[in-house]
Write a structure and sequence with these properties.
This protein is an alpha/beta fold. The chain has a single domain, classed as Rossmann fold, CATH 3.40.50.10300. About 25% of the residues lie in helices and about 25% in strands. The radius of gyration is 18 Å and the shape is globular. It binds cytidine-5'-monophosphate (C5P). Pathway: Cofactor biosynthesis; coenzyme A biosynthesis; CoA from (R)-pantothenate: step 2/5; Cofactor biosynthesis; coenzyme A biosynthesis; CoA from (R)-pantothenate: step 3/5. Its EC number is 4.1.1.36, 6.3.2.5.
């Protein structure tokens, strides 16, 4: 096993959506299925790493040989990541974390009470990737994801820098074969420039999420 590329490394992966409850029966969420993050976690295991997967609610089954922590809300995901981050040599944040949650969570089902409109007040969730970027030490490698619907490169470049990532994997939701639920992805990969503030940008061809997971992990291993 000594020859496996990630042997002896701890890898932390976040995957799936979060659910932010409004009341006991309703929640805010997004279309993430967890496929990309689970593919990365399984690939890291197969490349010899010790893997912790922090997963939001998905229908995928917990992968064998991986320490899987199930969470529901962004705050719970943040707590789980804070608990495991210091031991992680490589951290890959593929979760689609809800940016906002309802300010108040009603303990009883919210009733219509004859209303046509209701106001829903939201407050921002912690940015888990930004926290990790602010706390990482020299030996830690951090990879973020970004899903965009416009201005992919400039938005992704901003995230790479502001969240102090070693690498950022960006996809455009509107590209065929990319994004939620499908088994393939089409990504643009950004890394900090070595001599300038301009990031190094690569456009990768469409491939399965499995193959993409392997390419991402190989790339991250090479950065170490
Ligand atoms: O800014 P944006 O949400 O698009 O950034 C996406 C990246 O940040 C992903 O890697 C995602 O997992 C991570 N993220 C996070 N916590 C948040 C929001 C995003 O870890 N609250």
């Amino acid at each position: 096993a000594e020859t496996l590329p990630l042997h002896g490394l701890h890898v932390l992966v976040t995957a799936g959506p979060t659910q932010e409850p409004l009341d006991p029966v309703r929640y805010l969420t997004n279309h993430s299925t967890g496929k990309m993050g689970y593919a990365i976690a399984e690939q890291a295991r197969d490349m010899g790493a010790d893997v912790t997967l922090v997963s939001g609610p998905v229908t995928l089954s917990a992968p064998r040989g991986i320490d899987t922590v199930h969470v529901t809300t962004a705050q719970q995901m943040f707590n789980a990541v804070q608990e495991h981050f210091t031991q992680a040599d490589l951290t890959i944040m593929a979760a689609a974390v809800g940016d906002f949650r309802p300010i108040e969570q009603s303990s009883e089902k919210i009733k219509k009470n004859g209303r046509v409109n209701i106001d829903l007040r939201l407050t921002s969730n912690p940015d888990i990737l930004a926290w990790a970027g602010a706390h990482k030490t020299a030996g830690q490698t951090l990879c973020g994801f970004a899903m965009e619907t416009q201005d992919l490169e400039s938005n992704a470049a901003k995230k790479l820098t502001s969240k102090h990532c070693s690498m950022l994997v960006a996809n455009n939701l509107n590209t065929p074969g990319a994004g939620f639920a499908v088994d393939t992805n089409v990504v643009t990969v950004l890394k900090p420039g070595e001599t300038t503030d301009e990031p190094i940008i690569e456009h990768w061809n469409k491939m399965s999420k499995q193959e993409l997971a392997e390419r991402i992990l190989t790339e991250l291993a090479a950065l170490r």
